[in-house]
Every structure is written in C-alpha cells, then in structure tokens.
C-alpha cells in the first residue's frame, strides 16, 4: 500500500492517538497541542488511512531545526518506517530557506534512533551527560559567591569568546544544544539569564531556569574545571534556593557535562549521570561569526 505524509495539526490529536506506539506515558500525547503548533512542526506518515509513524522538528532562533518526535506503530517496526518518515521530514526542513542548521539530540542508549540518524547521514558531534542533582551543597572548592553580571554587552562578550567564535554547541535549553551564533542569543533571553563572574574575572557561568516536567536550574560553564573554582557551587546553590522560593517546588540542578569530562566528577558527587545524550548534525550552513569578544 502506498505511503503518504502530511502535517499534523492541533485538531489531529485523535489521529495521533489512533497509532499504537506501545509507549505508556507518551509525552507527545500529553503535550500534543504545543508540539503541533507555533514553532513546532509534526508530520504523520500514513499507509492508506492508517497513521504508521510520526516525526517533526522544532525551529529555534529562526534558523535551527531540531529533528525529533519519532514514533512508529508497533505493527510496522522493522520495516524502515522510522527512516522513511525522518528522511521525508529532513527533506522538508532542507527546503525551508530560513533553516541554516538541522540536527537531532537522542539518548546514547536508544539504539534504534541512533541507527536511524546514521541512515539519514546525521553525524554525532557531541555526547554529553545530563547530570542532575537535587542538592549541590559542599560540592567543589569552597569560596565566596561570584559577582553577578548585569551589563548586556559584557554578557555578549563572554558568549562570543567561549561559544560564538568557535560555534561550540551551547545548551539553549535542557535537551537542546546548538552550535552557537549571535542569532541564538537575543537580548530578551540574555536579560533573563543570570551571569556570574569569579573574583579575578577569569571565569564566568550562566544560571537559567527551565521546565521539562520538573523545574531545573541549568548551569552553563564552558570550561572543564567545574570543581576547582572556589565559590562556583556556592553560587549555584544560592541560585537554586532562590529559584525554589519563586516556584514553591523542588528545583533540580542540571549540568550539561561532556562525556569526556565525566572523569572530573568527584568520587562522592551528587549527580545522576545515567542519561547520555548525543547531539547529531545533518546540515550546517551557519556562517562564521564576526563579533567582538571579551578576549579581543
């Protein structure tokens, strides 16, 4: 029977639910309205009248397309249906003139998804732990809390020096890292994020709020000496406590820890590092940035 694909919209929730995925608590069904609207595009692959697979992408900063939402019917697995739907969605994303980068982020242990990404020529560029902790008290070198940076240009200078010049992947949200360009950072976001600098202005970090089922304080730190800088984790803990007071709920600390930095963790560290996510890249048409940085 011939396969065909169309975009799924908010009113197609029941169509999506008609596909037997075997996933007990499917986040796509729970957040379907958001996942099928605004900057999110969701597509369904059909055989006759039956939905047999989905995939889609989310557009960030107007030019980054993150592939995902891959689901297949239990009745067609092993028939390259996942590869089929993702290839079709990838081709649609390539035709969007605003899209300069296309990639995907998937768990290292998700063998089927990793194989599909290999088949569509999406190559792994960064494996990292989603290191999550509920309490970072006493972690690392003790010291005074770092100085907060409020100046927008100083924030941009730090980002340019540590991410934008090299297009180093920057964790824009939990689960969503992208090669850094100036377009990734609008002023509104930078004003929301809290930047902190150590006493001799040789290091900085970003604390930002995220919500992915749970509340997270995401820690962005571009060096590998996480546990050697005095006061770093006191600053994180202070920010975590403030965040908890604001939301009246538990807030977890989230650190995107490159896999080759895992050996830096202290023996008695509080992080759950069981999740390893691998950023893949299928298309990169990003232009080198011409920006001023803190080091220039």
From TrEMBL:
Report the domain of life of the source organism.
Bacteria
The protein's GO terms of the molecular function aspect are:
acyltransferase activity, transferring groups other than amino-acyl groups
Which intervals hold domain N-acetyltransferase? 3-158
Please give one Pfam family short name: Acetyltransf_1
Q: Matching InterPro entries, A to Z?
A: Acyl_CoA_acyltransferase (IPR016181), GNAT_dom (IPR000182)
The entry's protein name is: GCN5-related N-acetyltransferase
Q: What is the species listed in this Swiss-Prot or TrEMBL entry?
A: Bacillus selenitireducens (strain ATCC 700615 / DSM 15326 / MLS10)
